[in-house]
Specification:
- By secondary structure, the chain is an alpha+beta fold.
- It has four domains: about 140 residues, Jelly Rolls (Sandwich), CATH 2.60.120.10; about 110 residues, CBS-domain, CATH 3.10.580; about 200 residues, Beta Polymerase, domain 2; about 140 residues, Four Helix Bundle (Hemerythrin (Met), subunit A) (Up-down Bundle).
- The longest helix has 29 residues.
- It is globular, with a radius of gyration of 29 Å.
């Protein structure tokens, strides 16, 4: 008997996380283990079982699958399963099957609990393993309805020919001739095997012919230097996002060494997908009247619906929605400016920046978004100039409303003179909110910290946004934290959903509240770290890097955000297809059992992060 216990002890000592335990504790563990044999093909744990403890594979292998049968993990010698039930104190969500004849050590639950309480590193080790399996399960959820999308194709697979290249010193005439001979619309500029620029047919029209430049000028003088590039392993969807957000139609592809491998164009993506956001963005940007922009805008919801059907991730759908929204907003601002000039009111009297706020600033738009925008002025305008900006704001707001973006209920729009300020005025206002964080100041801080440039002078936007990061006081952060704690996920004490009890949304849950909680948590931790990041995902990553939030918590919140946003987008897309106005109220009865379980997990993650934040609040903010 003692020999067997010694063998178990030696086995544990050779595997994480037991190898770091004190000798006395390690020697005591074998007496709290039982040995179990599982024949190949037998089910060790079934979905809904609580299990007998922590299962350690001494020899053999076990597959861990979720409720849909998707493979989540394969556990080999020295690895464990069954920790989800122990950590969450509830039945497991996984089916664990021996795929080889397997010998198991089963550590009793009380021993596991004592061990994790006494040694936080052990708790972290198994919590991380558990989270990794949850993340993979969430990934399986996204693939469950329609499988992979064509936009998941590698861009390297879209390259069908060697790139047509020239050198920086070659003449424009020779470059144009090479393009004509090859029948291509752009040429890559290469020096010492490295890509240094790109010349498109549009460049030749605008920078050579329209500017009346002689054709013997060197290519270097007309090329776009340091173009956006993608690796051959990047996905077609990444190419699509770059093209939409940057309004470009050619993307060079490079190999592992950074050398040009080819080119991807919008035409390549059209062949891949019938519904192409790139072309919708181009169509919007090419409109010459406000009425035509209004006519194109409804196409955004159609594109988003198709992306939902293709099971694209929520994060990427939101980026596309924001990029298409930007195309509309940017074109509307430009056309209204042209109208004001045509009416004899002249161009902008002082430099300015039109900025977007809220979800648009964070690249997180979807089917439901209202207008949130403001103006940063380069100088204080006179009365005539103030009237010009008032007219610009009024007209842009009216047209955006016609395009499908309702007015902000809180009047956070450039139509409000309160939100048309110079840089010094913005800075003073932000500092005042930080010194005296009244309820309205706390609300405004959350809104205006999410500020992104749309049109005009970008430098003006950057000055204000950086000021919003640098002026956040500990007192303001305390008030923002208290606000974050009030956004409780709709989850009861026994993991039941808390549903609306009255009105038109009876028996539903408001998914916007926990999503907003994650957004606010990320905002707070980013402010604490001094990060200027805008998107919720990047804020969480920046805060984790800075150490203002635990890296595992940041990852869990990112996964929870993806899951909740994914379910909301699918809910809203279904409403849009039915001719209903999309909202944020999910009916649990409409979700699968698997989706409900994952949603509860996401709510638990948010609640845990809120509790962690609460423990760090200064006195007076609990």
């Amino acid at each position: 008997m003692e020999v067997e216990l010694a063998e178990v002890r030696d086995f544990l000592a050779d595997h994480a996380p037991f190898e770091l335990l004190p000798a006395a504790e390690l020697s005591a563990l074998p007496r709290r283990c039982t040995i179990r044999y599982a024949r190949r093909g037998s089910v060790v744990l079934e979905v809904g079982d609580r299990g007998d403890g922590l299962y350690l594979v001494r020899s053999g292998a076990v597959e861990v699958r979720d409720e849909t049968g998707e493979l989540v993990d394969r556990v080999g010698t020295g690895e464990a399963f069954g920790m989800s039930s122990l950590l969450e104190h509830r039945p497991t969500r996984y089916r664990c099957t021996a795929v080889e004849d397997t010998l198991l050590l089963v550590l009793e639950p009380s021993a596991f609990e004592e061990l994790t309480h006494a040694h936080p590193d052990v708790a972290t080790f198994y919590a991380t393993t558990h989270h990794a399996r949850l993340s993979r399960a969430i990934g399986n959820l996204q693939r469950a309805t329609s499988g992979s999308t064509a936009l998941g194709t590698r861009v390297g697979d879209l390259v069908t020919r060697e790139p047509v290249t020239t050198t920086p010193t070659a003449s424009v005439r020779d470059a144009a001739a090479a393009m004509a001979d090859a029948g291509v619309s752009c040429i890559l500029v290469v020096e010492h095997l490295a890509l240094v620029g790109i010349v498109t047919d549009r460049d030749l029209r605008n920078r050579v012919l329209a500017a009346d430049l002689p054709p013997d000028r060197p290519v270097r003088s007309v090329m776009t230097p340091d173009p956006v590039i993608l690796s051959a392993d990047a996905l077609a969807f990444e190419a699509l996002l770059e093209m939409v957000s940057r309004d470009i139609h050619h993307l060079p592809v490079v190999d592992d060494t950074g050398r040009p491998a080819g080119l991807v164009t919008t035409t390549d993506l059209v062949r891949l997908e019938n519904a192409n956001p790139v072309y919708l963005a181009a169509a919007i940007g090419g409109q010459t009247s406000l009425a035509d922009v209004v006519a194109e805008a409804p196409g955004i919801h159609a594109v988003l619906g198709q992306l939902v059907e293709r099971d694209v991730s929520a994060a990427d759908i939101s980026r596309v929605a924001t990029a298409l929204g930007d195309a509309v907003r940017r074109r509307v601002v430009a056309l209204v400016e042209e109208e004001l000039v045509a009416e004899g009111l002249g161009p902008a009297p002082v430099p300015y920046s039109w900025v977007v706020l809220g979800s648009a600033a964070r690249d997180e738009e979807g089917f439901t978004a209202d207008q949130d925008h403001a103006i940063v002025l380069g100088a204080e305008p006179d009365a005539t100039g103030a009237a010009w900006f008032a007219a610009l704001a009024d007209r842009v707001t009216v047209v955006l409303e016609q395009c499908g973006w309702p007015r902000c209920p809180g009047d956070v729009m450039a139509t409000n003179p309160q939100w048309r300020l110079t840089v010094p005025q913005w800075r003073a206002l932000l500092a005042d909110w930080s010194r005296e964080p009244r309820p309205d100041a706390v609300l405004h801080t959350a809104v205006f910290h999410d500020m992104r440039h749309l049109a005009g002078d970008r430098e003006l936007t950057e000055q204000v946004h950086l000021a919003s990061v640098s002026t956040a006081s500990p007192r303001l952060l305390g008030h923002l934290s208290r606000q974050a704690l009030s956004m409780r996920p709709p989850l009861g004490f026994f993991r039941g959903f808390v549903l609306e009890r009255h009105g038109e949304h009876r028996d539903t849950l408001d998914i916007k509240r926990p999503i907003s909680a994650v957004v606010q948590l990320a905002r707070i931790h980013a402010l604490r770290s001094g990060s200027p990041a805008l998107s919720t995902r990047r804020r969480l990553a920046a805060a984790a890097t800075a150490g203002t939030i635990d890296r595992d918590t940041a990852t869990e919140l990112t996964d929870a955000l993806e899951l909740m946003s994914y379910l909301r987008l699918h809910h809203q897309a279904a409403q849009a297809r039915s001719g209903l106005t999309p909202d944020n109220f999910l009916r649990p009865a409409d979700l699968t059992q698997r989706q409900r379980r994952h949603l509860r997990d996401a709510f638990e993650i948010v609640r845990s992060a809120q509790q962690s934040l609460s423990s760090h609040l200064p006195p007076g903010f609990e």
